[in-house]
Amino acid sequence: MLIFPYYQHRMAGLAAIEIAQKVSKAWRSLHAEWKYSTKGNSKNGKRARRRERINMPSQNRGGARCSTSNTSITSSNGTIDDGSSSRKLSWHDVYSVAVRWRQISEPCDLVVWVNKLSEEFNSGFGSHTPMILGQAKVVGYFPYYERTLEIAKTVMKERSYIRGKTDNIIHLSQDGKLEEIMHAKSCSDLYRVVGEDFWLATRCNGTAFEGKQLEGTRITLVKITPCTPAGWEDFDEEMSMAWNTLCNAYCGENYGSTDFNMLENVRDAILRMTYYWYNYMPLSRGSAAVGFIVMLALLLAANMEFTGSIPQGLQVDWEAILNLDPISFVDSVKTWLYPSLKVTTSWKDYPDVASTFETTGSVVAALNFSDD
Known about the structure:
Oligomer: single chain
Distance between the termini: 29 Å
InterPro entries: SRFR1-like
Strand order of the largest sheet: 4-11-10-9-7-8
Structural class: alpha+beta
Order of helices and strands: HHEEEHHEEEHEEHHEEEHHHEHHEHH
Number of strands: 13
Largest sheet: 6 strands, antiparallel
């Protein structure tokens, strides 16, 4: 749930600007490589084509402009390599900037990458988000209760089985259970039909490998997003491909564009990457806020500033979780997000955030500064 006090608003803003500045530099380098490649091909004709045959392009999923040359590239693991400085920017690096700001702004919160939690990670670390606690309805998440219930019923009907609390398979195709499930009006009704504790998982349709379905969020009517080593590998593949797709969408002919219509593919690519982030929830805490900050930062890096607000009662992370594929998520979010985007380049005049706030102390001072 995204509720920011004033210092967290400031944290989110500074983090977004720093990310936009870093990504902009990386994209500038990648565009230079694309421009050089395009210019070389048009001038040298047969010689260029001969050179391409000798230096075969890599088979990266990121597309034709992804190579393994020593200039600026987007590589198969989702990094942009600036050959002049040997620095790389991956999707993980992008999100890590927001993670650092989140850690400093809330020092009492344990905000870490779950794959760094060795024992918990190997056994499956879960991000738990309750909607109902006994008779109490959790204000921030209960509005998604009915929709979650319908998703659960749909998954149960499609698969005809669920898992018990010890991961045993519970078959639902006998004794008219599926029919009763489809008529259930509450979690109590579902529990009565099943007769024991159970869980099921939403699906998350992958893009990196066609036809592959990733395990999404486990629903016990207490939302649990499991993070396991195998799941992390799938997630990393999807995020790397989504990052490559975004870089390729912006760093070619669309680079630097201030034509809103020309940037549609860029906007959609940003939302697709956000979709996979929210479906894995890779932080012990703060995944929702970090995901939203990075989404706004990437839009800003592409010269689109979000000037509106999230509609009341809507949770962006839940929209991703309850949509089973990225296209559906994009369609649901763009209705309120895109009309609130303003094309602007004024952010490029801001001082460099990373060099302005070089120490933790300077960041803390900035977050707590007051004119009073």
